[in-house]
């Protein structure tokens, strides 16, 4: 029977957790801090639970250098998919309220009915949800927006499939992005702000990652509210949080166990600076009203404890992030190791172009999910590859069911010293007990020998 130390798991998520965190978790589940009860058995409103939450937030803020005066960090249970809906509900509600305030001010002397009609007409003419569709997850998010709002409100800024024969393989040139916005006489012919501009920073299924914050979104900044899904590259590289209105991601890939989602939201989108249009007004306008458990303002007001938060999952995420803080201080160290692992693996794939074809274009290659085909998608060869890999304890390499092929999800979580498995990385002196540089090296050796065979 294989033990943890016998295998390396490269699945996209849920993904390996550091063994010492799991060992501590086993103790915490039985008897947390010598209290006589386990962490999953105590109230989410107890002082101990509050400390778990505060510590996890602090570690996240340190790692990503989040300016906490201006950003709120929320923990909730929506999953990444739940945030596809939450983004729409919250951001549209905020946009409508801003528009309502504007109409109220500008047409103060008009009747209530006339003001309502003006607002309704502004919603119909100008409300726009901008989506950069660069892979399966941003596509899903845009489809959810269309389901909730109607597709007439969803504006596709770019869609990689238009240039890649229906596949997601690259990020379209920014010059081709449809970022223009309708102007309004009512607003002195100024471009009307979209409710938000959405991107998925790393497309887990397709292996496509934005190399950094898109320049086109900076130059078109004029109150553009950028929302990013970082579910699969969270805490893997430095991020200038200030460029985003909202960043979200599920914890289960890079941070912790399945069960919690983290949302980093700019405070000026929350009360007292901003609020969402009332549910009565939204209904009257024919727009969706979201469930309260996805309402960021409510969650922020209740310190992420509006309803029962799985504190055990917050604790695991906190432990993983605190280990990274104690090892590196900031995210720079983790970023360097992630980059090294990706460079090593892409290096060996590029060395054997007859055997391996990396699916995404070079400029959009993900550091987190390396998607490839063997011999142009020869399924027998891919099956053989997966069989041999499994024999060597290299698991979780099958591509997503929607695209097939092979996927190496190589950049998970922690590099910690004192690895309980004794998997020290002899080159760097740093041990990594999630997906280590050692694991990447073992896989690289296998890739090399499989190509030669
Ligand atoms: N966004 C991305 C980039 C993902 O990779 C995933 C899950 N693989 C999701 C969203 C959906 O997350 P969840 O399963 O937590 O709803």
Q: What key phrases describe this protein's structure?
A:
three-stranded antiparallel beta sheet; Aspartate Aminotransferase, domain 1; alpha/beta; seven-stranded mixed beta sheet; 453 residues; binds 4'-deoxy-4'-aminopyridoxal-5'-phosphate; Aspartate Aminotransferase, domain 2; 2 domains
Architecture blueprint of SSEs:
Blueprint lengths: L7 E2 L9 H12 L16 H18 L6 E6 L2 H28 L5 H15 L2 E5 L2 H14 L4 E6 L23 E2 L5 E2 L4 E5 L1 E2 L4 E2 L5 H5 L6 E4 L16 E5 L10 E6 L12 H6 L11 H6 L9 H18 L3 H20 L4 E3 L10 E6 L4 H13 L2 E2 L10 E4 L27 H16 L1
Parallel strand pairs: 1-15, 3-4, 3-7, 7-10, 10-11
Antiparallel strand pairs: 2-12, 5-6, 8-9, 11-12, 13-14, 14-16
Helix pairs in contact: 1-9, 2-9, 3-4, 3-5, 10-12
The structure holds 4'-deoxy-4'-aminopyridoxal-5'-phosphate (PMP).
4'-deoxy-4'-aminopyridoxal-5'-phosphate (PMP) binds next to α3.
Overall description:
The chain has 453 residues and is an alpha/beta fold. Helices cover 38% and strands 14% of the residues. It has helices at 19-30, 47-64, 79-106, 112-126, 136-149, 215-219, 279-284, 296-301, 311-328, 332-351, 379-391, 437-452, and strands at residues 8-9, 71-76, 129-133, 154-159, 183-184, 190-191, 196-200, 202-203, 208-209, 226-229, 246-250, 261-266, 356-358, 369-374, 394-395, 406-409. It is globular, with a radius of gyration of 23 Å. The relative contact order is 0.17. Residues 414-433 have low confidence and may be disordered. The structure holds 4'-deoxy-4'-aminopyridoxal-5'-phosphate (PMP). Residues 13, 79-81, 137, 200, 204, 229, 231-232, 250 line the site of 4'-deoxy-4'-aminopyridoxal-5'-phosphate.
């Amino acid at each position: 029977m294989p033990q943890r130390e016998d295998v390396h798991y490269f699945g996209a998520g849920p993904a390996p957790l550091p063994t010492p965190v799991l060992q501590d978790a086993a103790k915490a589940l039985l008897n947390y801090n010598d209290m006589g009860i386990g962490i999953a058995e105590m109230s989410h409103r107890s002082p101990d639970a509050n400390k778990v939450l505060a510590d996890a937030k602090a570690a996240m803020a340190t790692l990503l250098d989040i300016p906490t005066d201006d950003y709120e960090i929320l923990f909730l249970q929506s999953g990444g998919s739940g945030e596809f809906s939450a983004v729409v509900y919250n951001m549209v509600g905020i946009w409508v309220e801003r528009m309502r305030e504007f109409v109220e001010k500008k047409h103060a002397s008009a009747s209530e009915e006339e003001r309502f009609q003006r607002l309704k007409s502004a919603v119909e003419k100008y409300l726009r949800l901008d989506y950069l569709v660069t892979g399966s997850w941003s596509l899903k998010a845009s489809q959810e927006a269309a389901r909730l709002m109607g597709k007439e409100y969803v504006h596709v800024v770019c869609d990689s499939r238009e240039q890649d024969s229906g596949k997601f393989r690259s990020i379209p040139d920014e010059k081709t992005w449809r970022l223009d916005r309708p102007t309004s006489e009512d607003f002195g012919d100024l471009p009307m702000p979209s409710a938000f501009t959405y991107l998925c920073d790393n497309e887990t299924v397709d292996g496509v990652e934005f190399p950094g914050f898109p320049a086109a979104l900076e130059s078109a900044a004029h109150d553009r509210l950028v929302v990013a899904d970082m579910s699969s590259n969270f805490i893997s590289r430095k991020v200038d949080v200030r460029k985003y209105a909202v960043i979200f991601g599920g914890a289960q890939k890079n941070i912790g166990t399945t069960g919690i989602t983290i949302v980093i939201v700019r405070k000026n989108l929350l009360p007292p600076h901003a609020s969402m249009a009332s549910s009565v007004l939204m209904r009257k306008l024919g727009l969706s009203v979201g469930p309260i458990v996805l309402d960021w303002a409510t969650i922020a007001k209740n310190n992420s404890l509006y309803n029962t938060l799985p504190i055990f999952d917050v604790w695991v995420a906190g432990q993983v992030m605190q280990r990274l803080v104690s090892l590196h201080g900031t995210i720079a160290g983790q970023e360097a190791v992630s980059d090294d692992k990706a460079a090593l693996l892409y290096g060996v794939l590029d060395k054997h172009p007859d055997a391996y074809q990396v699916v995404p274009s070079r400029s959009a290659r993900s550091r987190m999910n390396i998607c490839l085909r063997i011999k142009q998608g020869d399924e027998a060869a891919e099956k053989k590859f997966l069989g041999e890999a499994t024999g060597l304890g290299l698991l979780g390499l099958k591509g997503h069911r929607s695209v097939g092929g092979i996927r190496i999800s190589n950049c998970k979580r922690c590099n910690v010293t004192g690895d309980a498995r004794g998997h020290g990385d002899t080159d760097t002196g740093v041990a990594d007990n999630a997906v280590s540089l050692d694991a990447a090296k073992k896989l690289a050796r296998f890739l090399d020998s499989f190509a030669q065979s």
